[in-house]
Amino acid sequence: MRHGFLLIDKPTGITSHTAVAIARRRLSEKNIGHMGTLDPAASGLLVLAVGSKALKVIELFDGLSKEYRADITFGSVSTTYDAEGVIEEVTMKPGCEIPTDSHIRKLLDERFKGKISQVPPVYSAIHVDGQRAYDLARQGKQVKMQARTVQIEHCDIINFAYPQLTLNVQCGSGTYIRSLAHDLGQALRCGGYLSGLRRTKVGEWSVEKAPSPDEAAWTDIISLKDILGDFPGIELSDAQWEDIKHGRTIAHTIESEAFAWHEELPVALLIPCQGGCRPRKVL
């Protein structure tokens, strides 16, 4: 089989878990997982790791930036900060005006770019006191969400005609676009919620030409050789691979963490040690 990453275009209406299940059936392969979830209401790029070796290297890609096309509706707020929650219309207060294109651009530049403080939605999968925040919220319990620092590389207007705004957002891992939509609406004093979301990129990978889960094929998989080509690596002999398999040190000098390859497959992550290098993780 071919171990590697599969880029799929997840449609709206299904969970990331369901998308994985469809890909497993499609490829007749149980060892498939995803690299970062997408909400059911969101569509776009979902990166799947296919094969046991691919699953074991996902950790190396946890911090990749994401890019989204985000639709925001002003004039209302949502309990979940998106279209899935209870929507409540916001009455404009005296003295408040409908925001203009230039006003929004200025606000985005001043408050929603770079490192910013963001409070995740109560209806999120974050653990609070050992439970998912959304489970506590659905039980009617008060949930205190802690602010976190997130990175927004750019946040640019694609289209704007009040009450509809479309943004292109590139951000770091852990950023909630729902919170961005809500916070922008609060800053403009007109309210706002995320009415649509599409993930277009993860790192350098794009949703362009990515198949849907039920159209995925083995030929769509990017091999680990291509995925890991930029990482340091060494080729092991049969004897060296036998040592590494059993956690033993081999007499090969490396300066930093590197992949061990054997018969054109990555078989271990190596780290420097006295006398050579040893495995941190056997794949």
Give the arrangement of secondary structure elements.
Elements: E1 4-10, H1 16-27, E2 32-34, E3 43-50, H2 52-55, E4 66-74, E5 76-78, E6 87-89, H3 101-111, E7 114-118, E8 127-128, E9 131-132, H4 133-138, E10 148-161, E11 164-171, H5 177-187, E12 192-202, E13 205-206, E14 222-223, H6 224-227, E15 233-235, H7 238-245, E16 258-262, E17 265-273, E18 276-282
Parallel strand pairs: 3-12, 15-16
Antiparallel strand pairs: 1-3, 1-14, 2-3, 4-11, 4-12, 5-6, 7-10, 8-9, 10-11, 12-13, 16-17, 17-18
Describe the structure in your own words.
The protein has 283 residues and is an alpha+beta fold. It has 3 domains: 4-61 and 206-223, Pseudouridine synthase; 66-202, Pseudouridine synthase, CATH 3.30.2350.10; 233-282, Archaeosine Trna-guanine Transglycosylase, Chain: A, domain 4 (Roll), CATH 2.30.130. Helix content is 20%, strand content 36%. The protein has 7 helices and 18 strands. It has helices at residues 16-27, 52-55, 101-111, 133-138, 177-187, 224-227, 238-245; strands at residues 4-10, 32-34, 43-50, 66-74, 76-78, 87-89, 114-118, 127-128, 131-132, 148-161, 164-171, 192-202, 205-206, 222-223, 233-235, 258-262, 265-273, 276-282. Strands 1, 2, 3, 4, 7, 10, 11, 12, 13 and 14 form a 10-stranded mixed sheet that branches. Strands 15-16-17-18 form a 4-stranded mixed sheet, with helices on one face. A hairpin with a 2-residue loop joins strand 10 (148-161) and strand 11. The radius of gyration is 23 Å and the shape is elongated. The two termini are 15 Å apart.
